[in-house]
Each structure stands twice: as structure tokens, then as C-alpha cells.
Amino acid sequence: MTLIPTDLSATSISDVVRDPDREIVASSRVVDLSVGIVVCIPCFRRPQHLRLTLDSLVSQRTPRSFAVVMVENDAARRESAPVAAEYLADGRLQGICLVEKRQGNCQAINAAFETAQALFPAATRFLMIDDDEVASSDWLELMVRTAEATGADVVGGPVLPVFDDDSQPWLSRHPAFCPAYDYSGAVPLIYGCGNCLITRAVFDRFDRPAFDLRFNFLGGGDCDFFVRCRDAGMTFHWTAEAVITETVPQSRTGLGWIAKRGLRIGAINYRVQSKAAQSASARMLVFAQMVGRLPLSLVRAVGLLTSSKTVVAMHPVMVALGSVLAAFGIEPKPYEASKIVS
Q1: Cβ 82 vs Cβ 47: under 8 Å
Q2: What is the per-residue pLDDT for 12?
Q3: Is 90 exceeded by the pLDDT of residue 303?
Q4: Strands, E assignment, the chain
Q5: Which of 197, 252, 250, 247 is nearest to 52 (CA)?
Q6: What pLDDT digit, counting tens, does each position of 226-256 carry?
Q7: For 300, which of 2, 151, 186, 205 is 20 to 30 Å away at the CA?
Q8: From CA 253, how far away is CA 229, in angstroms rounded?
Q9: Going by C-beta distance under 8 Å and a sequence separation of 6 or more, which residues neighbour residue 225?
Q10: Is the CB of residue 25 less than 8 Å from the CB of residue 43?
């Protein structure tokens, strides 16, 4: 075990972060550089909920030692940094908090994973949880145990919604909130990194930045990353018992937000598939497929109306429309700071 008191190693820690747009703002008094597990937490304007996230990590039932790397992505207000510093200073968690001055979803995620790999050279497993999420008590143990038992390159788990407004429980079954799988086992792909474990070997296969900055404000950089992992022959496993819950404010349960979410999913689908196309003819085929799905989505929506609420039935149409709009260069940018509702 390599323990370093941070008052003796502040320079060493800072040397890890050589990017001038990244700044270490807090660290625990002791950092164990020999840990094999690091939990990464992108943070943006949710300081009160970040406490819940960190409390859930403190309460993990596991004998394994782990560290945290928190990334504050609001360089001006830095509301998450004092919360991170509090948990690090009193020893509830070990690790660091840094500020990524370049705003955007992919910038924050890249900063977290890159710093975690550099600062903890013995770490082989990197997990991620968002600052509006809460991990169940056995989350980390289950994710790591799955990786050990299966040898999977990537492990995913469900993110279950907890609605501030509980008057519409059926929303949990809406595709915008429903997990991709409801069973544990090998899966062809996972789509998001809000509950994931990625091995170091995965990152070693790709150039940096791992998460494509062209998805920085649209979102979907995680989907693109995992598609590239799949295409490179990497394996995925889903652990349904490794539950994370996500707090969903009332602002995200209205018809307008849900419709925009569908448009964004469609835009991400188009961007990911178009990027993967290797030739002009392949890209034209993607374009034609996206346009062709719009009338088909209307047929599907009519069929869903007999068994689902209108907002659910319209989801395929919004996704198809989002893809078509993206094909013509029209995309939402929900991860721009001015558009984010905390």
C-alpha cells in the first residue's frame, strides 16, 4: 500500500494534472495510490444532491478500498467544490476534486477518467456515478464482483428514476426513464455511463479523449464510446441488482421536456451511426434509413395508443423526428450551461 499525505505530495498530485484547463481544488489528507478501484463523479450545479451521492458512496458495503475523483464543471460558481472538499477533508472519502474549466458533458467525463487513470496507476476498474444519483449499498461490490467473475470489459447497471412528483408512476415505464435491460447477464451493448464500470484495458485501446467532444453539448458521447467498444470486440455485462437511483425533478416530467428528450435521443442515434459509417455511400444509407423511419414511427405510435398513454406512444415519433432533424444539421444542445436546469 502506498499512502501519501497530501501536504507532502501536493506537487505530485498537481503534476498529474498537466492540462492548464484543469485545476486541483481539494484532496483527502491521505491518498492511497495503490487502490484498484476509482469512482468518477462529474458535478455541475447540484451541491445539495451531491451530498446524497457522496453519502451513498460512504455507505457502500464492501471490503474493497476505493478512491473518488470528482470533477466540478462550473469553473465560475464552483458550488460542488466545497461539498467535495468537506467529504475529502474529514476522511469520509479519499481522492481528489478538480475543476474542468471547459464546460460540457464530455469534457467533464474525460477529465474524470483521465485524472483517475493518471493519479491511481494501480487502478484497473473505473466506475461512474452522476451527481444527481444515489448508489444502493452493494452497488460497488456487485459491479466489481461481476467484472471479476465474467471478465467483461464493461459492466452496466440500471438507473431507476425517483420522481419528485410521484403523481405519474407510469412515467417509470417511459423509454426515456426505463433501463435498457431487466435481467443480469451478457448484453450486446450498454448505452450510458451513469452506472458503469470500465476496465483500464478498454481505455488503453483508444486515443484520448475517449469521449468524443463532438457530443459535448448534445450528449451521447457515452453511447458513441460504447458503440466503438463493441465494434472493437469488447464484451459487456449487465448487473440488474447493482441499482442506482436518479432524482428526477418535476421540470423533467412535463410533456415538453420528454418530447425534447426524444428528439435528443434521435439526434444521438443519427450522429453515432453516421460517424460509424466508413464511406459516403454508407452515410447516405444512414440518412435514408433515418428518413424512412419517420413514417414507420407514426404507424408504431398509432399501435401503441391502444395500450399506452399518448406521451409514451409519441416517443418513437419524436426519436425518428430528432434523427431526421439531425441529418439536416439541426440538433439540441442540452448540455450547454445556459440550457441546464439544476
Answers
A1: yes
A2: 61
A3: no
A4: 3-5, 22-27, 30-32, 37-43, 67-72, 95-100, 125-129, 133-135, 154-156, 159-163, 185-187, 195-199, 236-238, 244-248
A5: 247
A6: 999 999 999 999 999 999 999 999 989 988 9
A7: 186
A8: 32
A9: 193, 206, 210, 211, 212
A10: no
Cα–Cα distances (Å) from 67 to 94, 111, 309, in that order, read: 5, 15, 44
Question: Which pLDDT score is estimated for 8?
Answer: 37
Q: φ and ψ at 135, to 5 degrees?
A: -85, 140
Mean pLDDT of 205-216: 97
Q: Which residues contact 67 (CB under 8 A, 6 or more apart)?
A: 31, 32, 35, 37, 38, 39, 93, 94, 95, 116, 120, 123
Q: At what angle do helices 105-119 and 221-231 cross, to 10 degrees?
A: 60
Phi, psi of 196 (to 5 degrees): -150, 160
Q: Grid coordinates standing for 130?
A: 452522476
d(C-alpha 167, C-alpha 197), whole Å: 33
- Give 266: exposed, middle or buried? Use CB within 10 Å, 0-12, 13-18, 19+: buried
**Residues in CB range of 145: below 8 A, 6 or more apart:** none
Per-residue pLDDT at 9 exceeds 70: no
Q: Which residue has the higher pLDDT, 142 or 15?
A: 142
Please state, in angstroms and rounded to a whole number, the distance separating the CA atoms of residues 243 and 253: 21
Residues 6+ apart with CB under 8 A from 320: 266, 290, 293, 294, 296, 297
pTM over 0.90: yes
